[in-house]
Request: fold
Amino acid sequence: MKTAIWTITESGFKHGLNLAKNIDDSILFLSEDLIKKLRGLRKINNQFSKNPMVFPKLSKKVKEVFKKFDAHIFIFSTGIAVRIIAPLIKNKIEDPAVVVVDDYGLHAISLLSGHIGGANELTKHVSKITGAKPVITTATDVHGKPSIDTIAVKNNIHIANPGMIKKINMAILENKPIKIDDPFNLFQGKIPNLIKTKENPDIICTDFNIDVPRGTLLLNPKSLIIGIGCNRGTSMQEIETFLMDILKNNNLSFNSIWAFASIDAKKDETGFLELSKKYKIHFIFLDKYDLKSVKNIKNPSQTVQKHMGVKSVCEAAAIKAGNNADLIVEKQIKNNVTMAIAKKTLCSI
Reply:
């Protein structure tokens, strides 16, 4: 996770420095007043492996970068942290993880986004580094029970209606039976008292685009690979529009897209790169030898063979990127774009 570590006092500085050195992809934020004080006491030398960010006003800087980090570690009082982040909080899905550590490193508190954001796990990691006592208050963790949102995160499953998480976790806490429609078997053995059924389920796990009854939790596993080919210079908007049309026509969920895939000759295609960046979905680029190894091509092309040296780009890329995934939407063509969709086999963590 991309992590911001915040410290405003001399006593908290050593913990911030220690955390920054031991947490990958982290940035240390120091107040201007603290920097001046440390310089005056000659306590700053070559301690930094990378330069810290210096801010004049804590609340203003946190507001500026709050959503730009996956996690924040505040080394000061919980009260200060709560007052600063309160106006910035949105929901379970969007909020970054927040962990609070006191000045003396006695306690590390999971404050926000314990499950989905990963604050509980980060709290445990912080505690190992600093020697602090981890403080985790989420009910399922306190009672030693699994939580539906933690399982979803570990299995890379999108939670379509997070408002239903509380209902399912409460049922887990109360040892009530939970009915689930889960053709992927991602939750088998993960939740107690689970009943697999299609009749009035409490949870539906699907990669189809469906409306669920009120009170039903909808989960979208990342099972779909979108194979794409295009003429050079095709715009992101044209590719995106075609993608949305194909998903709609086949009743497939955008939230279930695991990856885009194409031939490596297209790895600098601007439309592809912009699409990947916009939706934060990785693009897998395969060489022609990988694509040639795919045998079950439904719609080979002599034109593609002539220009690319392979008989298929979109179908072969979708199948190969998903480790011999099942082709569920054969090659579609519209203007400058070709597209196919494959479904990969999913395994529970």
About this structure: The CA atoms of residues 19 and 129 lie 7 Å apart. The chain has a mean pLDDT of 93. The two ends are 19 Å apart (CA to CA). The first strand starts at residue 3 and ends at 7.
